[in-house]
UniProtKB/TrEMBL annotation:
Taxonomic placement: Bacteria, Bacillati, Bacillota, Bacilli, Lactobacillales
Matches recorded under SMART domains: A1pp (SM00506)
Protein known as: Macro domain-containing protein
Residue runs in coiled coils: none
Gene3D superfamilies: Leucine Aminopeptidase, subunit E, domain 1
Macro domain location: 1-172
Originating species: Lactobacillus jensenii
InterPro entries: Macro_dom (IPR002589), Macro_dom-like (IPR043472)
Length: 172
């Protein structure tokens, strides 16, 4: 698995976030945090039933916000950060909400002293955010966050689909 460096401490890789080795992975969750389709369902399945129980105690999550749990049966990471991205066609301000997803996820990773965090594509599946726009927003926010914070962390965009990988590698 080849990592391509977008900038200092920021990488893109063609891989599934579900099994990516890092301190934390970021789940593109729905507002209930109780699992769903796509990467959310895959993460819940891999982490096992204890993840569902932990998520029930979080009482959901609003768009743009992020919450954290342990990874339970998912052995490749310690934490799962759950963030709810905007539904592109229904949101009044999808860019602002997507920016908040990345910022709030990174803030949690720093709070929990994670040295690496792997992001899945937030809102780029059934939520319909155009992948080229989403990649640009994600890259911009993460770069700004890394410049602003004096915290050593490796950020990886895990691109499961070829279209995601192409969109991120075009940013180099």
């Amino acid at each position: 698995m080849k990592e391509i460096e977008l900038s200092k401490n920021l990488f893109v890789v063609k891989a599934s976030v579900v099994n990516f080795p890092s301190d934390a992975i970021v789940n593109a969750a729905n507002k209930t945090l109780l699992g769903g389709g796509g990467v959310d369902g895959a993460i819940h399945q891999a982490a096992g039933p204890k993840l569902l129980e932990a998520c029930k105690k979080l009482h959901g999550c609003e768009t743009g916000q992020a919450k954290i749990t342990y990874s339970f049966d998912l052995a490749t990471c310690k934490y799962i950060i759950h963030t709810v991205g905007p539904v592109f066609k229904l949101s009044q301000s999808p860019k602002k909400e997507l920016q908040a997803c990345y910022k709030n996820s990174l803030d949690l990773a720093m709070k929990y002293k994670c040295r690496s965090v792997a992001f899945s594509g937030i809102s780029t599946g059934v939520y319909g955010y155009p992948i080229d726009q989403a990649a640009s927003v994600a890259s911009e926010v993460v770069k700004q966050w890394l410049e602003k914070h004096n915290f050593a962390i490796k950020v990886i965009f895990c691109c499961y689909r070829d279209s995601e990988y192409k969109a991120y590698t075009k940013l180099i």
